[in-house]
Design brief:
Belongs to the RuvA family. By secondary structure, the chain is of the alpha+beta class. The chain has three domains: 57 residues, Nucleic acid-binding proteins (OB fold (Dihydrolipoamide Acetyltransferase, E2P)), CATH 2.40.50.140; 63 residues, DNA polymerase, domain 1; 46 residues. Strands 1-2-3-5-4 form a five-stranded mixed β-barrel. Helix 6 packs antiparallel against helix 7, helix 6 packs across helix 8 and helix 7 crosses helix 8.
């Protein structure tokens, strides 16, 4: 069982990254691929899921995010893909707060999560999240990107959506958009990397 991988991020795709360790490239499914810097050495926390016809690695930026993923897997009706989709579409503090506060309406906003499953998440996890460090006083709410107006540059458009999905405010992303639009054309991953540097 793997705990984490220390390696270079050699490829970034819409739903996974490739981490090269010792000359071997590991495909790792992650919630927000563009949060990882391309061609840099990173520690990626991983959870290995083994099924009858499939072996997959799921990756996380922090050990706490991995722990939250593991807790979601303990919920009846939640598989690894559903758990990853939840992590991709919500700030973790908001998710923990929603579960603690019995907020079904927050949970049903996630892809594939209906009222029954949302209630099951609350039932199974409401009293089991005390070991997570996420700040329950953080703003609640689903982080959903809105479509920027960059029809002539789809790579930049995808990058801006990725930045919003990572939790950056739309007004901040709009400021970054103006700066990135002045750069020479590049791929989505490069735009995201440049945008993250501007937002820091």
């Amino acid at each position: 069982m793997y705990e984490y991988l220390n390696g270079v991020i050699t490829d970034i795709a819409p739903n996974y990254i490739v981490v090269e360790v010792g000359g071997v490239g590991y495909r790792v499914l992650v919630a927000n691929p563009y949060a990882f810097p391309l061609n840099e050495l990173e520690r990626v926390y991983v959870e290995q899921i083994i099924r009858e016809n499939e072996q997959s690695l799921y990756g996380f930026i922090t050990a706490d995010e991995k722990l939250l993923f593991q807790k979601l897997l303990n919920v009846s009706g939640i598989g690894p893909k559903s758990a990853l989709a939840i992590l991709a579409n919500a700030d973790h503090s908001g998710l923990v707060s929603a579960i603690a506060n019995n907020d079904v309406n927050f949970l049903i906003k996630f892809p594939g999560i209906g009222k029954k499953t949302a209630q099951q998440i609350i039932l199974d996890l409401q009293n089991k999240l005390g070991d997570l460090p996420f700040n329950n006083d953080a703003d609640l709410g689903l982080i959903l990107p809105t479509q920027p107006a960059n029809d002539d540059n789809p790579e930049l458009t995808d990058a801006l959506l990725a930045l919003e999905a990572l939790g950056y405010a739309k007004k901040d992303v709009n400021k970054v958009e103006k700066a990135l639009a002045k750069e020479a054309p590049m791929d989505t991953a490069a735009y995201v990397s440049a945008g993250l540097k501007l937002l820091q």
